[in-house]
Amino acid sequence: xxxxxxxxxxxxxxxxxxxxxxxxxxxxxxxxxxxxxxxxxxxxxxxxxxxxxxxxxxxxxxxxxxxxxxxxxxxxxxxxxxxxxxxxxxxxxxxxxxxxxxxxxxxxxxxxxxxxxxxxxxxxxxxxxxxxxxxxxxxxxxxxxxxxxxxxxxxxxxxxxxxxxxxxxxxxxxxxxxxxxxxxxx
Length: 186
Hints:
With 186 residues, this protein is of the alpha+beta class.
């Protein structure tokens, strides 16, 4: 289990480097006299027992448990379990990269090619029933997969658990405030 935590830390460090690289490309030059930034969130340490407990908690269904992410972040880390995913839509992300680290089980992953009859599900998020011309891989425990933005991908399987690290091109915006109901009382 120690090796699993070590691998998770290595993967998270790798993802952070990708995120830093993306931020460096879009940042302007630093000005003198500027102070270091303050953390926008508390740090996260997930020790082996906590990770085991989390795997047990989500291992009963198709579930995702967020560990890191949200407003202001360019990084999202989640543990995802697929109890049974015999079919899934193919997708392309215009502005985010995905990194998968397989914790347990196996799945079929198709990468590359083109989406067949794509539709934009939300801004920059494309879905399709299938991929045409992609390569198919069987992924299993211990595999690390990097899916750069713009790459069609589709995953199916059952009893499959992975860490998903999503790296956004820009920090996530704050959620829009809920609109207040302006109905007046009689």
